Amino acid sequence: MNTSGISSLSDNDLLTMIVNGDSSAFKELFDRYNALLFIYAHKKIKDKEASQDLVQDVFATIWQNRSRLNIEHGTVASYLYASVRNRVINVFRDRKIDERHLSSLQNLIRPLNNNTDHRVRERDISRLIDKEIAALPPKMREVFELRRKGHMSNKEIALQLGISELTVATHQKRALRILRIKLGLLSYLIFLLKFHLYLFH
């Protein structure tokens, strides 16, 4: 089908074609709603890059799961907006969870200050921490080190690197998750205590 023919199809017709693996129908649906969904997401989270990523993730999920798509209730448009809205909610939920998590960790790690075993192991743990930080993806590591060693705020890092504050926070959040897995709980707690690293300040 030519381009003009596809552009005249309804959303439901496009969806049927997408389910059958038609990439031109998928492109038409993307072109039809990408800008609108971006505006909707951006109004909520106030971040251009994160909004673009969020909308692209919605469409990527649709294409990856196209054979199982089944929108029985509502319209294709309402499905797309609901998908974006759910991801926006996840963004705010994850930020709140991380804030509460780090607050509780601060209380947990205070007793470690007077722990002899902690002091003995601190040098080895520091080496391990440096090794795992060096293994982080380049941009994530750059953001992380500016916060850890440069003592810069998210806003200052964002201005220096030309990225958004939310992107800075996302890099730090992902870095902490990686370090949590690599270091183990005790080393991770000591790391947070030593460097006083908080994501959303």
TrEMBL record:
Protein name per UniProt: RNA polymerase sigma-70 factor
Pfam families: Sigma70_r2, Sigma70_r4_2
Key words of the record: Membrane, Sigma factor, Transcription, Transcription regulation, Transmembrane, Transmembrane helix
Single GO MF descriptor: sigma factor activity
Database matches in NCBIfam families: Sig70_bacteroi1 (TIGR02985), sigma70-ECF (TIGR02937)
Keyword Transmembrane helix: yes
Gene3D superfamilies referenced in this protein's UniProt entry, alphabetically: 1.10.1740.10, Winged helix-like DNA-binding domain superfamily/Winged helix DNA-binding domain
Organism listed in the record: Mucilaginibacter conchicola
All copies of domain HTH luxR-type, residue ranges: 133-189
Highest rank taxon of the organism: Bacteria
High-level lineage: Bacteria, Pseudomonadati, Bacteroidota, Sphingobacteriia, Sphingobacteriales
Family the UniProt entry places it in: Belongs to the sigma-70 factor family. ECF subfamily.
GO biological process, one term: DNA-templated transcription initiation
CDD domains xrefs: Sigma70_r4 (cd06171)
InterPro entries: RNA_pol_sigma-70-like, RNA_pol_sigma-70_dom, RNA_pol_sigma70_bacteroid, RNA_pol_sigma70_r2, RNA_pol_sigma70_r4_t2, RNA_pol_sigma_r2, RNA_pol_sigma_r3/r4-like, Tscrpt_reg_LuxR_C
TM region positions: 183-200
